[in-house]
């Protein structure tokens, strides 16, 4: 029986998803558990183990060549540990070693969720075939990853490309990371909503104060809601342009819940990018929506794991 599948895990603060992934990007077996994010570390691991055991119960498990994990971060791939901000029970948690207790001798690869999304977009999405790309998850946080020289570049700890903590306002608001004026502090969903509320926007009768509700109000013409998204777009434009100047990326791919705002976000972002990406070698930079959707974490974890195997088809970006 050929070993031609990757077992992938996508671990976040809301859900732990797992799948067996093949070289064409199909997911013939899936498993999922809610993340017990407010419980202790052992309880969270129990949910991960339950997902793995469900996958291992499939007859296809005998074809698994490696395990890939995309996790909320920070992660330390070199140490095999994770410290997700939204899972307090895991601080310096030895996730790779714990997964090996279930998966045995299979090689295990760990990357941050932004890097996983980047691997997915380079393999099956909007960065396919690109030599240099920044792929971003703009949601409750702002994460990202890099493609350099046509290859995924996770960096030594699996966090390279974490654009959310580039400072774009030197005297800006303090960020929980310890910095000031970070992209995430301005452009994440909760901060888009926070700024709109602070400046006088009020939700409708349903009381929805999410970034999606702000986007709906902006679409309907509310000037405060529109201004909050324009400020987020400017922060993203500055961070993207800075990354392009450093690494000569040719495309920025944006996914995550905030990207669901569509042209409320992308129209000002494209316009404002021209204010920052002014050097001759970055003027051709384009910004596009992500294409891999909710399976990005699983596809990307598989593609990242396949980098260390001889499996064909995974993560080639061709």
From TrEMBL:
Tell me where on the tree of life, at the top rank, the source sits. Bacteria
Q: Output the InterPro entries linked to this UniProt entry.
A: ATPase_NBD, ROK, ROK_cs
Please give one Pfam family short name: ROK
Q: Which family does it belong to?
A: Belongs to the ROK (NagC/XylR) family.
Q: What is this protein called?
A: ROK family protein
């Amino acid at each position: 029986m050929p070993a031609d599948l990757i077992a992938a895990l996508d671990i976040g603060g809301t859900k732990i998803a797992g799948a067996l992934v093949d070289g064409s990007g199909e997911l013939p077996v899936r498993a999922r558990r809610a993340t017990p994010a407010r419980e202790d570390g052992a309880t969270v691991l129990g949910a991960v183990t339950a997902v793995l055991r469900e996958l291992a119960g499939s007859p296809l498990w005998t074809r698994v060549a490696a395990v890939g994990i995309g996790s909320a971060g920070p992660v330390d791939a070199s140490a095999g540990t994770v410290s997700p901000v939204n899972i307090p029970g895991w601080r310096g948690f030895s996730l790779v070693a714990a997964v090996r207790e279930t998966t045995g001798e299979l090689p295990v690869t760990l990357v941050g969720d932004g890097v996983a999304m980047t691997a997915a977009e380079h393999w099956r999405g909007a960065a396919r075939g690109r030599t240099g790309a920044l792929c971003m998850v703009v949601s409750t946080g702002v994460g990202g990853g890099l493609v350099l020289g046509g290859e995924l570049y996770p960096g030594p700890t699996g966090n390279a490309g974490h654009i959310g903590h580039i400072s774009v306002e030197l005297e800006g608001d303090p960020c929980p990371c310890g910095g000031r004026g970070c992209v995430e502090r301005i452009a994440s969903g909760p901060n888009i909503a926070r700024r709109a509320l602070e400046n006088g926007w009020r939700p409708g009768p349903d009381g929805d104060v999410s970034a999606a509700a702000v986007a709906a109000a902006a679409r309907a013409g509310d000037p405060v809601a529109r201004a909050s998204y324009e400020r987020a777009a400017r922060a993203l434009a500055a961070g993207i342009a800075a990354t392009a100047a450093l690494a000569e990326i040719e495309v920025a791919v944006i996914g995550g819940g905030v990207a669901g705002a569509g042209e409320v976000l992308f129209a000002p972002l494209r316009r404002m990018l021209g204010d920052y990406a002014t050097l001759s070698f970055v003027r051709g930079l384009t910004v596009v929506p992500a294409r891999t959707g909710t399976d990005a974490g699983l596809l990307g974890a598989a593609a990242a794991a396949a980098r260390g195997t001889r499996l064909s088809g995974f993560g080639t970006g061709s």
